[in-house]
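REVIEWER CHECKLIST
Item 1: Sequence provided? yes
Item 2: Single chain? yes
Item 3: Sequence as submitted:
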Amino acid sequence: MQYFYKPFPEYFDPALRRQLGVWYTPPEIVRYQVERVDRTLRDELGVADGLADPSVWVLDPCCGTGSYVVAVLDRIRRTLDGKGMGDLAAEELKRAATTRIVGFEIMTAPFVIAHWQVGEMLKGTPLVEGERAAIYLTNALTGWTDSEAGPPIPGYEALVEERSAARTVKRDRPILVVLGNPPYNAYAGLSPDDEGGLVELYKEGLQARWGVRKFNLDDLNVRFFRVAERRIAEGTGRGIVSYISN
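Item 4: Structure as written out by the authors:
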C-alpha cells in the first residue's frame, strides 16, 4: 500500500495531483527523517526517549497514506521494545497512535489508507469501538487562528466533527515536531482569505530593504513552512521542523 500514492493520483486525476502538489516520498527518505528527528530530540532538546517520550507531539500536516506516521510509530515501538516494556509497549504505542502522533490529509483516498496502515501496525492491540488513529481529514493550511467554527451542514455532520477534532490539535496541542513532505506547486496562486495571508510576513520589506524579488513565495511548499514555523516559534517556543523542500 505504501506505493499506492504515486500511481493512483497520476492516472486517476493528474490535474488534481498537480494542483495539490502530490508527490511520492521514498521510504528510505522517510526513515532517514524520522531517525534524524529522534536523534535530535535526544541530543539537542534533552528528550531522553526521543519520539517515544509521551510529551512529544508530532504532526505531519500532509500525511498522504501515512508513511511518516507509521515510521514514527515504528521508531517508538523499537525504543519501547529496547526498554524491555513487554506487553506495556503495545498499549503505549496505541496511546501514541490515538493521541499525539497526528496526521492531516485533505484527500479522502489516502486518508482512508493512512488509517488502514495504522490499524495494521496496531493489530496486536487493535483499536476498538470509539478509538481511532489521530489522522484527520482537514486542510492543514486553515483553521489555526480563525475562531469561527462555521455552521453545520445537514447531512455532513461527520465532516463537521472531523474539522472540530482537527481544530483542537491545531490550537491546543503542544506540537514539538512537524515533519513530512509538504506539497509543492509554484502556480497555486495567492494565499486565499481562509489561510489568513500565511506568507505575507515573508514578503515584507523584501524588495525595499533587500532588493529581493518576490518569486514563488506563494508556492504551497512555502505555505507549509510558514505553518510549521509559526506553530513552533509562536506555539511551543522550541521544536523541530523536518521537511523536504523543492
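Item 5: Key structural point noted by reviewer: Residues 25-181 form one domain.
Item 6: Recommendation: ____
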